[in-house]
Amino acid sequence: MDERLQLLKNGDENAFEEFVLKHRKEAVNFALSILKDYHAAEDVVQDSFAIFYVYRERLKDYSTLKSYLFSIIHNKSVDYIRDNNKNIYTDYHIASTISPEEIIVNREKEHRFMDSFNKLDEGQKSILYLYAFQQMSYNEISEVLGISLSKVKINIFRARKKLKALYAEK
What we know:
This protein is an all-alpha fold.
């Protein structure tokens, strides 16, 4: 990892291309989780990779390359929402091959979960998404969102507790 980091810092195009190919899909998914618009997410990710490359000397300030990239994506996504005054809504579908009844039950559970998830404030949604779906560590989340480690822990605890209560209400 140190060799790859050094190559990226030195502007090695092959190392950067490899990094982009490795992280592009999850980067777009992360931006999509915030923006809910695939084309906007792709644009934000494209810009974020460019910023990552231009400011690659800042890599030493982050524990992982992924956390640096995701912090850029998070900030660019927030800027995009602010600049375009977007209201965000989610609609996810679960695919199952078991039976039509189970598909309906799963969709109802998913709808119930997403309704509960969408009632969380934006900060709680971001933290839970990074923790649960991107499987980031507390340190990485702290770096991505620019908040203290203790605040990450507290917010994850509170968001999970609130999500559990909201889900139980339905």
